[in-house]
Amino acid sequence: MSIRRIYAIFLRQILLLKKGHFRLVSLFYWSTLDLFLWGILSGYLGRMAGGKIGFVSTLVGAVILSSFFFRVEQGIGIAFLEDVYVRNFINLFASPLSIHEYVLGLVATSIFDTTVAISFMTFLAWVLFSFNLFHFGLLLIPFVAVLFVFGWALGLLSVGVVLRFGPSAEIFTWSVPALMTPFSAVFYPVSALPSFLQKISAMIPNSYVFEGMRAASAAGTFDLQKFIVALALALLYLALAYIFLQRTYKTVLRRGLFARFVTE
After folding, report:
1. How far apart are the two ends of the chain, measured CA to CA in Å?
2. Which of 36, 57, 76, 183 could form a disulfide with 106 if both were Cys (CB 3.0 to 4.6 A apart)?
3. pLDDT at 243
């Protein structure tokens, strides 16, 4: 494994970001729009409730962490689609680059994109709504860890799906984070879901994260058991996604399916 090749994949994405102004705008556009809309709504609901309920801290915190999860997944998925759009796969894998190095390069890109976007979003939340995400203190670290791991799992899954089914499957990359949202209890507790959907929610690591965030915001408590379950699920999905990607890559090589990324 070569650190230089991993860095080369990362550097390529950074240079694309530097040269493409619309790519740079995309880092901030949707997350800023979500923050503005939900921040205004949370302030309105807080005034309607007479200030007795911390709508701002609950909803704005949920929006930031939800956007964080989206950025982690799409930091891998969208970086991968850049190579799909320019039909660059044959060039990449005709080199000594391995799938492991390529994946680590995408993970590094995901970390960079997410850090930049969420730092800006956190600053904006402080300026516009006087919301300090860091009031969670050290309780924020386990939440972020689970979202990172599960976001990487979905990112690798989306890469595997597009590799297996071709460029036409790119919609999976854009939609899979949103598919998780109804079951993640971002803006409501898991108990608000119908009972059969609660069983699905119990298998989604994010549901434990957002439930834990609300508990930390309301009472300053941290449920260690829920965190362990969430992290275990996220690590399991990450391992399964990587195995799926690796096997898909070998299948694509064996069947010569890389040609579809040149012709489609």
Report:
1. 31
2. 76
3. 92
Task: Look up residue 94 and give its two tokens.
Answer: 């005709």
Tokens of 81: 């689609």
Burial of 169 (0-12, 13-18, 19+ CB in 10 A): middle
Which segments of the chain are extended strands (E)? none
Determine the structural domain holding residue 238 and report its residue range.
3-263
pTM (2 decimals)? 0.82
Domain count, the chain: 1
In the block, residue with structure tokens 């915190």: 61
Three-state DSSP state, 148: helix
Torsion sign over Cα 234, 240, 244, 250: positive
Quote the mean pLDDT of the chain.
Answer: 78
CB atoms within 10 A of CB 83: 19
Tokens standing for residue 214:
């609300």
Q: Give the closest residue to 174 by CA, choosing from 104, 79, 74.
A: 74
Contact 92, 12 (CB under 8 A): no
* Dihedral sign, Cα of residue 93, residue 97, residue 103, residue 105: negative
Rounded CA-CA distance 66/63 in Å is 5
CA 206 vs CA 105, 145, 248: distances in Å: 25, 11, 26
CA distances to 144, 201, 216 from 54, rounded to whole Å, are 22, 24, 12
What's the CA gap between 56 and 243, in Å, rounded? 40
| % pLDDT > 70, the chain | 80
